[in-house]
Amino acid sequence: MHRATTTGERLYFRVAKNVGCMLLSFRTTMRLLTHNMLTSHVKGVTNGYPLKLQAENIKVMSVDFNPEFVARMIPKLEWQALVQAAESIGHLGDLPRELMPEYESNEEFLKMAHHVLMEVEVIEGNLECPETGRKFPIKNGIPNMLLNEDEV
Amino acid sequence: MASGRRPEHQAPPEVFYNEEEARKYTSNSRMIQIQQELTERAVEMLNLPEDTPCYLLDLGCGSGLSGEFLTDQDHMWVGMDISANMLDVAQEREVEGDLLLSDMGQGMCFRPGTFDGVISISAIQWLCNADKKSHNPPKRLYKFFSTLYACMARGARAVLQLYPENSDQLELITTQAMKAGFSGGVVIDFPNSTRAKKFFLVLFAGGTMTKLPKALGTDDRAHQAHFTDTRERGKGKPRKSVKKSRDWIMEKKERRRRQGKEVRPDSRYTGRKRSNKF
C-alpha cells in the first residue's frame, strides 16, 4: 500500500512539472517525417500522395540527433516527396535532391536529413489532396484528417 | 473509466472526452498509472527488436500518456485521436510524437508499410458504437483493420488493448480483423480475476506464423486437468465378479471358509451349469 502511494506521488510531480513547462512554450507537432507518411483517404481517391503542403507558420526546433533512427527511416521515405515538401516551405537547405548511395555511413548527410525530417515543424497551414483538392487544415501543429460523412 | 460506468454508453468519443474529462488524464494519478502499465505490457507484446529505435503508431493516443512511455524507450511515434481536447492536453504536456486528429473508423491515412508496430490502449471498443446515423460498426471496423494492415510493415505487430462489453463485441472485432487479413488472436491477462482481467488483441500483419504471447496470471497446471488419451485398465479397485459366475462362487466359498463355516470342497464341477436333462 505504501509503495503504491509513493508511485502515485512521483507521477503527480511529473505531471505538475509538465504543466509548468506548458506555460513557457507550446511543443507543436507536424514534422516533415509525418508529412512524408500521410496520404489522402478521401473516398474514391486512387493516388492521394503526396499531399501538397502549404505552410503559414513554421518553427524550427532542435531535436536530439539519432543517426540510427534516421538511417532506418530513409528507406521508408519517398525522397522526392520530401524534397518537394521541404522546398515548398523553403527549408530544403543543402539536402541533396537525389538519395546518395551508402548514406548509412555518411554522417553529414544523415544530419541534414535529420534536420529536415525532425526539426522543421509546421504549426499552421494546409495539406491538400493532389487529386480532389480537399484541404486538411493544420491547426496548432495538429493536422485535422477528419472526413465529412460524404467523403467516407 | 474513473466513473466505473462505460463511457461508450454516455456520448461519442469526440464529445465524451471534453476539456474536463481530458484534464483527468493529467491529474488523476490512478488513471495515469493504469495507462502506463497497460502501455508497458502492450509494448512488451509488440516484440520489437532490441535497442532499435522504431516508428510506431498509437491509436487513440489521447493525452499522450502511452506515448511518453514510447519516448522513454527511444521510439518515435505518431498518435491519432478523435478528441481535439485530448490532443490539446497532449500538446500542453509537450509529448515528443506527432499528433493527428482523425477517426479510426474512417480508415488510416498513411502510406503502405509505414509502421514497425501499432499500439492502442482502451480505444477499439469505441468503434463498436454507432454514434451517427451513417455509422455501421462492422463496416467501420473493417475499414479500420484493412487500412491498418496496409500501413504496417510486413511482419509487424499490432497490440490493441480493449474493454469489450460482451463476447459478441469481441467476436465482431476479431472477425473483422481476420477478414482484413490479420492473423493472431486475443490474449487475456489475469483471466480469473474480474478486476485485473485485461484483453489484448494481438495481430500480425503478414510474415511468418508466430505464436501468440503468453498471457499473464495463467498457470495451466493449477486450473486445468492434465489430459492424456491413453486408456488405463485394471488400476484402482479390483472389480467385483459377476454374480453366480464361477469366480463369484469361488470367492464366496473362500470367504465362508475363512468364517469357519462348513463348505463343500472345490471340484471341477463347482459352479458348472447343470445339463438340460435335469
UniProtKB/TrEMBL annotation, chain A:
Chief location: cytoplasm
Name this protein carries in UniProt: Multifunctional methyltransferase subunit TRM112-like protein
Keyword Glycosyltransferase: no
Any Gene Ontology CC annotation: tRNA (m2G10) methyltransferase complex
GO biological process: maturation of LSU-rRNA; maturation of SSU-rRNA; positive regulation of rRNA processing
InterPro entries: Trm112, Trm112-like
Keyword DNA-binding in record: no
Organism expressing this protein natively: Branchiostoma floridae
Keywords: Cytoplasm, Nucleus
Domain of life (superkingdom): Eukaryota
Pfam families per the UniProt record, alphabetical: Trm112p
GO molecular function, one term: protein heterodimerization activity
Family statement: Belongs to the TRM112 family.
Subcellular location: Cytoplasm, Perinuclear region; Nucleus, Nucleoplasm
Automatic annotation (TrEMBL), chain B:
Subcellular location: Cytoplasm; Nucleus
Family annotation (Pfam families): Methyltransf_25, WBS_methylT
Alphabetic keyword roster: Cytoplasm, Methyltransferase, Nucleus, S-adenosyl-L-methionine, Transferase
Biased composition (Basic and acidic residues): 217-235, 244-253, 260-269
Record-linked InterPro entries: Bud23-like, Bud23_C, Methyltransf_25, SAM-dependent_MTases_sf
Annotated spans, Disordered: 215-278
Keyword set includes Ribonucleoprotein: no
A GO cellular component entry from the record: nucleolus
Family classification: Belongs to the class I-like SAM-binding methyltransferase superfamily. BUD23/WBSCR22 family.
Subunit structure: Heterodimer with TRMT112; this heterodimerization is necessary for the metabolic stability and activity of the catalytic subunit BUD23. Interacts with GRIP1.
Function: S-adenosyl-L-methionine-dependent methyltransferase that specifically methylates the N(7) position of a guanine in 18S rRNA. Requires the methyltransferase adapter protein TRM112 for full rRNA methyltransferase activity. Involved in the pre-rRNA processing steps leading to small-subunit rRNA production independently of its RNA-modifying catalytic activity. Important for biogenesis end export of the 40S ribosomal subunit independent on its methyltransferase activity. Locus-specific steroid receptor coactivator.
Name by which UniProt lists this protein: 18S rRNA (guanine-N(7))-methyltransferase
Organism lineage: Eukaryota, Metazoa, Chordata, Cephalochordata, Leptocardii
Gene expressing this chain: LOC118425846
